[in-house]
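Researcher: Sequence of Two component transcriptional regulator, LytTR family follows. Predict its structure.
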Amino acid sequence: MEKPINTIILDDEPFAVHLLKDYAKKVSSLNVIYAGNDNYKVLELLKEYTNTLVFIDLQMPELSGMEIMQMSNHSHHNFIITSAYQEYALDAFKYQVIDFLVKPISFQRFYESVEKYLGWEKSFNTISDTTAENKDFYIKAERKVYRIIPEEILYIEGLKDYIRIHTTSEKIITHENMKDIIGKLPKDEFLRIHRSYIIPSKKIKMLEGNSICLYGDIRLPIGETYRKAIKAKFN
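Model: Prediction complete. Tokens:
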């Protein structure tokens, strides 16, 4: 039997918390580690645990569900929205949520949502396993899973809460950070030149002042923190 999925239920309505907790107990694949209305407790749990499934309401005092998803670096967690306000669905899906459950929530709808998550997680793990021995890797973006081929990366750009991967065929925006993404790249083949830029070493054309020129007429700035190390590498 596979290890149960750590599950959090966050809602400011006691009845909703009780109902969802009761539903979750009926699903053997779920292990409820918290059910309640304490936003800050949930934020701490999301730091402590990884790959948690979170059922989260949007309308709550102090911190909204949207704010919690943004603060929790949710690329390492998976969210299912539970809300009476369907008009928030479009905004919620910007955070790559698995599903949007409209209150009142039936057990059948709850179960379908869990099955959707399990199917998605299984497919993600399967394709990840197939590339364990090569350089390719997979990322989650826009409720899809993209295969990233390092040789096709032109450069990676860090945004405020996201990164944009520029490849030879497309631009992929995902809720990752620069530290995590560089850890997925082949060692010694990529170089961080700026807090906002990672480049493939093989695509460097020349160093010019405080900029690096890449093949394809791409010019990127070198951050002050990285200048000494980069110029030493060229020397």
